[in-house]
Specification:
alpha/beta; six-stranded mixed β-sheet; 44% helix; binds pyridoxal-5'-phosphate; pyridoxal phosphate; pyridoxal phosphate binding; TrpB-like_PALP; Ser/Thr_Dehydratase; Threonine dehydratase
Length: 335
């Protein structure tokens, strides 16, 4: 194992202080991520609607932003997380590069191709028998028992600040954007985008699967609610409750929440594929919301975040490539 090398970076609040979130933290995250994550392009899609292409991000999703920001700031050498897959993949890539010991806890029914890639990257995986709420509890227990740093997939100030760089790039590249569609699972990306857009007149629209409308329900109730486990096709958006860090940020800034059905999510992924954009279902959720909203008159220009491209084909190709690399290394050692 190599020693961690990516530990320098701008100062941040001490680890553990997650209660305060300041928009300046998105700028700090952007400085920390510079040169380590892709500034992804805005792609033309339909009249008045462009795509923020996070399916082209290293690791296949925006999750690399929050994961990298947290790992660099916390200087962790042993990490535990609970993940539906993409955050785990992003952390596993970092862990492999930096020599960090990583355990990823997965919920029952987690995407098997994502789990296989996480394991192929060298992380330990643990699967619980319940949903996301149980997964998060187990991750916390494992972190405490092993003295590891817990880096949650969304409910952490450093993760939110890292994801906020998505919004920061959109506003820099398209300052006249009027509506920004963002998928909401645990809400790390939505909270980050809300933070980056605090002083900008853009309408921020969060899009949730209709099977798990945790933000819409919680905002209506005036407090975070826990929903039952979900089986939505958007496997990255099965989180059962808003986070304690993310909820107030979203509550105070989001302009609207839209719920989309699984059929709409799959139709959006299909339409994206016909335009040459390979999005996984979770990655197509915001586009599904934008397509539904276009029927009403939502202000344009609009941008929808394509948040992930880890389709089964992409995941299997990445896992096969890793296995080949490992095999070659073993052959070279034995020759
Ligand atoms: C591709 C993709 N999009 C969106 C999300 C939701 O992100 P968040 O949990 O930050 O709301 C996830 C979460 O795993 C994801 O993998």
């Amino acid at each position: 194992m190599t020693a961690p090398t990516l530990l320098a970076g701008p100062d941040f609040r001490p680890a553990g202080r997650q209660d305060l979130l300041d928009p300046a933290e998105v700028a700090l995250a952007a400085a920390r991520l510079d040169g380590r994550v892709r500034h992804t392009p805005l792609l033309p899609f339909l009249p008045g609607l462009r795509l923020k292409a996070e399916h082209l991000q290293h690791s296949g999703s925006f999750k690399l932003r929050g994961a990298t920001n947290a790992v660099l700031a916390l200087q962790a050498d042993r990490v535990v997380t609970g993940s539906s897959g993409n955050h785990g993949i992003a952390l596993a890539r970092l862990a492999r590069d930096l020599g960090i010991e990583l355990t990823v806890v997965l919920a029952a029914g987690a995407n098997p191709d994502k789990a296989a890639l996480i394991a192929a990257l060298g992380a330990r995986t643990v699967t619980v028998s319940g949903g996301v709420a149980e997964r998060e509890l187990r991750a916390q227990e494992l972190a405490e028992a092993s003295g590891s740093v817990l880096i949650p997939s969304s409910d952490h100030a450093l993760v939110v600040a890292g994801q906020g760089t998505v919004g920061r790039e959109v506003l820099a590249d398209c300052p006249d954007v009027r509506t920004l569609y963002v998928p909401a699972g645990g809400g790390g990306l939505l909270a980050g985008v809300c933070l980056s857009a605090l002083d900008h007149p853009v309408r921020v629209v969060g899009v949730e699967p209709a099977k798990t409308p945790r933000y819409a329900r919680s905002l209506a109730a005036g407090r975070p609610l826990t929903l039952p486990p979900s089986d939505t096709v958007a496997d990255g958006l099965r989180g059962q409750r808003p986070g304690t860090v993310t909820y107030p940020v979203v509550r105070d800034r989001v302009d609207a929440l839209v719920a989309v059905t699984d059929a709409e999510i799959l139709a959006a992924a299909e339409l994206l594929a016909r335009h040459g954009v390979a999005a996984e279902p979770s990655g197509a959720v915001a586009v599904a919301g934008a397509l539904r909203h276009r029927l009403t008159d939502s202000p344009t220009p609009a941008v929808a975040v394509v948040s992930g491209g880890n389709t089964p084909a992409a995941l299997r190709a990445a896992t096969a490539q890793l296995s080949l690399t490992t095999l070659h290394a073993l052959e070279e050692q034995s020759s």
